[in-house]
Structures are given as C-alpha cells and as structure tokens.
Here is the input.
Amino acid sequence: MKHENRFVWFDLIRGISALAVCAGHLRAAMFIDFSQLTTTNIVEKFFYFATGLGHQAVMVFFVLSGFFVGGSVLSRSNKFEFDNYLLARLSRLWVVLLPALIFTFFIDQITNSYSPQLLAGEHYSILGSGPSPNVKYSASLWTFLANITFLQNIYAPVFGTNGPIWSLANEFWYYMLFPLLIIAIGQIHASLTKRAICGVIFILIAFFIAHNLLAGFVVWLLGVPVYFIYSRKTPICGLWFVVISIILFIGSLLDSKTNFIQNTLPISSDLIVGFFFSLFLISIKDRSVSGQWINYIVQVAKWLSEISYTLYLFHFPVVLLIYSFFYSDEQVTLDSYGAMQYILWLIVIVIGSYILWWIFEKNTSKVRQYLKSHLIG
Here is the structure.
C-alpha cells in the first residue's frame, strides 16, 4: 500500500522490527529467562517468543534495505553517481551514529560506576548482547574510529556496550558492494575499464573486509527482486497468496528457533527468514486498507518508521542502565506488575528515542544538503 509516495506497510514493518529488537533486549534485562520458569501458559510462551525475534528483525531490516537502497541504485540506472550515493548513505548513517556513540560513552560511565561487572561482561549470558567474557568492553579512540568507519566486528569490537550496532557494518558494506557489483556486471552503463575497476574493488572488499558478512548480503539482495516486482504494474495474485506467505513467514520464524530446516538442509535460518519475508512483501504489493483506519495506520507507520533507526542505535545502553539500577540483583516474572513495569520502560525508551530523533535524525536532509553543497558542489 502506497500513500503519498510512502510504502505504508513497509514503514509499519520497519517500525515494528525496531520495536521488536528493543523489546527483546528489555525483556532479557527485566524478566527471568524462559528456561527458569517452572510452569508456563500460552501468554508467557507467546511473550517470550515474540520478544525473542530481535535477530530475525535485523534480517527483515536487511531485506527492506535491499528494497529501498538497492532499488534507489537501480532506479537511477545510467544516471547513478557514486559520489552522491556515498554522501547520501554516509549522511544517513552518521547523523545518528556519531551522537549514538557519544551517548553510549556517557551512559556507560554511569553504568560502570554502579555496576562495573556489567561492563566486564559478567552478565552477557543474561543480556545476550554488549560486552562479554570473550569480547571485552572497549571505548578507546581506535574503537570509536573503527565504528564510524563501519569496521566493528571486523577489525575492532563494537563501541562500548552498544552491541546492536554490529549490523551497521553489514549495512554499510552492502551499500558499497551492491553498486560495485551491478556496475561490474554491466547493469549500469560504464566503460570496460570502469567495470573492471569496480569488479576488482568488489573482490577486495569481499575478501579483506566483508568476507564474514556475505551470507547477510544474500539476505539483503532478496529485497532487490521485490523492488523489481513493485516497480511493475502487473497485479499479484489474490488474498490466498497473502495468507500462504504469512503462514510460511511465521513458519520460518518458528524454524529459526528450532533450526529444523537448517538441520535437514544446508540453508541458514537467516536466509530462510529473509526469503519468506520477501515473499510476504511481494504478496502485499496490492493490498490496501480503506475506511476510518487508513489515516491512523498511515500516521502510526510513518512515526514508527521515522524513529526506528534512532531507536535501534540508542536503546541498548539505556536498557543496560535500567538493568544495572533495577534488575541486576533480582529479575521479575511476567505477572501484572512486571508487565506494567515493562510497558512503562518501553514507553520511556520510545519517547526518549523520539526526542533524540527530533534533535538529530530529523535534520538528516539538511546535513546532506550542507555537505553536498560544500563537498560536491
């Protein structure tokens, strides 16, 4: 469904995915692990499952990124200019990343003064992200520089406690690899010399930098055929296709927890989730909502989508701060009181993310135009 040049369903999915990542980290920080529950009911099983899909949500991000970023490259075709493209990608990433790293450093100082063992990685088994016994906490200048050049988890650890920013390295190098690839194979018109140079650079990046990221690149590329299908006016099959794709996508999420298919076939659960999610996106190409709900859905989807990147980059140090102050000694169970605390903390984090979005990310286009006028002209 498209509304005023926005893909409403995509906006909603992106916003929900960012919420899913945040909700999962907050749940791990607040509630005892599912394995520690002596008895469980259907509500608890659903809650722990739904808040345990943070990694799968990142795969959803990758596919959407392939759709939007890969699609933007293809839409420009022979008018594609690498300098403008690189400026657009870097301004988009840095406007939020730079303040997020600085924010992480200062929040970590508060956390460290209250719970130094957390920064030492002693709580990694509970939190599932951040410093661990194997990957030590680092907030050095080198780590900062490595993170702003998207070399985290490649030649340096993630900065401070902000474990979730691992995925930005993936995103950036996918941004670089894709246009190099399509220029090299001739999908964008270029001289033979330029194509050869792009091919060599692609190989060098793939070998020396992104060699451990290429599986995710395949997931990212799944968004490109979705873009091709959306760019054509040919209608997609009816409601039955939507229902089947939803069932298959939910099945892929369930399988990502059991690894049944991965244990049977040599296919990663990330690729399975990405494939069936892309199939789901194709199925909803012509789906729309009419009536009194449309404006509400559009507004919620737009708002969630706009703050999703800020929410993703800023939430985890705050979650660790909450954990160190309130839950490191004793986590809670999923009763009405625990659920109320959880919802209130989630609201606080989302509102805080909105404020930070308003300060930083909202001004991305202004920063981009300023840099473009001064660097490119």
Remarks:
- The chain has a mean pLDDT of 93.
